[in-house]
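okkk here we go again. third time trying to get the magnesium ion bound version out, last two times i messed up the smiles copy paste (missing a bracket lol). double checked this time i swear
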Amino acid sequence: MLEIDELAINYDQVEAVRKVSIAVGAGEMVALIGANGAGKTTVLHSVMGLLKPKAGTIRLKGENIVGAPSKRILDLGVALVPEGRQLFGHLSVLENLEVGYARKFGIRFDRAGFEGRVAKIDAYFPRIRERLKQTSGTLSGGEQQMVAIARALMSDPDILLLDEPSLGLSPIMMDTVLDLLVQLHGEGMAILLVEQNARAALRISERAYVLDSGVTTLNGRARALLRDPRVQQAYLGL
Ligand SMILES: Nc1ncnc2c1ncn2[C@@H]1O[C@H](COP(=O)(O)OP(=O)(O)OP(=O)(O)O)[C@@H](O)[C@H]1O
Ligand SMILES: [Mg+2]
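finally!!
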C-alpha cells in the first residue's frame, strides 16, 4: 500500500528527516513512534504531498508519488488526520465533513453522494451523530478528534495517516479514539499511526517503527518492541 524508502527532507538548511524507510501493507496497522521533533509530522506531510523530499521515494500502490500534487495522493486513497485536529472551529460538524468531501469531489459535489457517505460512516461516531449542526469549536477535545477522523474518512481512503490522535485527550476519550482505529482496521483500513503515547500505539498496532532524530532506527512486531529494552527505556518510561 505505502512504501517509503530512504526518505530525506529539509526545511531550508535544517535536516528534519534524514533516512526514513517505512512500509504499510494493505489493511495493516503500523505505528510510528518517536520523541518531540523526531520528524513524525514531517514524514506524514511528505506522504500527503505537502512537502517535497530532498531524497528518497514514496510509493503508493506501486506509484512513485514524490512531487505528485496532494489531490493525486488523495485520489490514490490516502487521507490525513492532522496533528491538533485542524478543524474549522467556526463551522458546524456537518460543514467540516463537507470540506472533507469537497477535497476529493470538488465544491460542486453531488449532495446525495455526500449524504450517502455521511450515512456510511455514521455508525462509527455515535457521539457526533446528534451534533452535526453544532459549531465544531464548541465540541470537547475527544469529539473534535472524532470529527477530524470523520472528515478524513469522507474521501473513502484505503489508508489513514493519523498524527497524534490521542494528544490532549482524557484516558477515556483516548480509549474511545483508539478503539475506533481498531474497529476501522478490523474492517480493512490500512493505518499509519503517529503517536507519542508509544505504549497505547504499540498495543493496538501490528508492526511499528521507531523514529529517532529523523532516522528510522528500529522496527518490528509491535509486541516485540513493547518488550525491547531500548524501546522500554526511551519511550515507555520503564
Ligand atoms: N516549518 C518548519 N520550518 C523549519 N523547521 C521545521 C518546520 N517544521 C518542522 N521543523 C523541524 O523539523 C524537525 C521535525 O519536526 P516534526 O514536526 O516533523 O517533528 P514531530 O516528530 O512531529 O514532533 P512532535 O512530536 O513535537 O509533533 C524539528 O526539528 C522541527 O523543529
Ligand atoms: Mg508532530
